[in-house]
Amino acid sequence: MDTGTAWQALRRPGLLRSGRPWRAAGYLLLTGSAGLLMGTVLLLCGTVAGVLALVLVGLPLLAALALAGVPFAALERRLLRLVDGRPVAAPHREPARPGLAAWLRVRFRERATWRELGYAALAGFVLWPVDLVAVGFVLVVPGQLIASPLLLALDGEQVNVLKVWQVESPLVAAVLAVVGVLLPAALAYPLTALAAGRAALARILLEPTGQELRIGELVSSRARLVDAFEAERRRIERDLHDGAQQRLVALSMALGLARLDAPPGGPLAVRLAEAQREAVEVLAELRELINGIHPQVLTDRGLPDACADVADRSPVPVEVVFDLPGRLPAAVESAGWFAVSEALANIGKHSGARSARVDGRYAGGLLTIEVRDDGVGGADPAAGSGLTGLADRVSVVDGTLTVSSPPGGPTLLRVEIPCAPCPPSLPCPPSLPGLAPLPGPPAQLIPPSPRRPS
Question: Which of 186, 302, 305, 454 has its C-alpha lying 20 to 30 A from 169's C-alpha?
């Protein structure tokens, strides 16, 4: 099989023995036919949509027509492999959440969508005649020349070759047939060059730009960092749980046994008791540290039970209500748990609230967690309440954070994270299943709004 680009093949002596001229002819034939069809569709649908737009019925058709370049460009990317075999990456990013609405929102915001529409219009109104005329010339002209002797024999008097000149001599017809046999070899070079130029133009318009590639790589690296971060948290939690914590338990037991052997009431017994008490306190602090790094209940039972565990340890009474279809990706559950933990910690330290409530639900590919309290309000991200760090943490998983905390309260913190639930029969992946190749919108903080008069 020949290798290299079509331009390199044109400078090599073995072009006629390779399959490139045939692939070039097939490429031009397919792109010309597709361009003719696309031009017809754009013209007819655009006319109908323009007329119906006067009564607003054609507006959805116009919106759909704007996406006509997406499937056309996908077909063109496949056809480009006929020319030089090189794959063409799609410049589109996957929506962060499932559903048609999310897909349309992403597509209409991408520059690639409009480039593809422009390319579809260019192919549908300008390029297809060039493609089909070139292929037709290569196929029709040699065929007419080769068939000249046969047509002359059938007519008996003369034959009109290509509708250009009349041939009456069998010798001239035979010469034309020989020329017809040799002509495809001579036309192979310009035909391949035309296909290579046509493919180069398509690549310029349809390949991802440098900025799109860089952004895609940044998001891919962000996904890898999220996975690595979660894996490291789990490793630290496991090492502390199975290592340092077990040794502290053993130390506490050894001190307890030593107290039994020491004379009761003596200085040694008192010091051993103090050492055992210190070991127990260190063990309790270590357990709190382990639970803060990554609680085991989050891994074993999921986000609702982990949030309920945080609420049980809150100094403010908290009601926890979750409605989830099942387990979510580990990165999403970790971010949601961290948001609830930070919010309840802020409520206990700063709000002066008498009660709080945590609501979690999943709908339309979006996990929504709301934490509200009846405290004094006035939460200010600049005051060191942890909201800025929480917003950064949520944005890592393409989530958004909004806070409404007018002076006098109440305070509402809402976290929204796009994700897809894990299949019940399969283990949940550590990362987001459909992380978008482009960064999502940054987390935003809504400034406190003035309190409405009662």
Answer: 186
Cβ(146)–Cβ(132) below 8 Å: no
Tokens of 116: 């593809």
The two three-digit tokens of residue 399, written as one number: 């989530």
**Among 222, 160, 134, which Cα is nearest to 440's?**
222
Residue 405 in contact with residue 378, Cβ under 8 Å? Answer: yes
Q: List C-alpha distances in Å: 179 to 141, 151, 168, 354.
A: 10, 16, 17, 97
Q: Does pLDDT of 36 surpass 90?
A: yes
Beta bridge partners of 413: 371, 403
**CATH of the domain spanning 300-454, picked from 3.30.190.30, 1.10.1760.20, 3.30.565.10, 1.10.10.10:** 3.30.565.10
Q: What is the pLDDT of residue 276?
A: 79
pLDDT 10s digits, 407-426:
887 888 999 988 888 776 55
DSSP H/E element including 321? strand 318-323
Output the pTM of the full model.
0.51
Show Cβ contacts of residue 18 under 8 Å, excluding neighbours closer than 6 positions: 2, 9
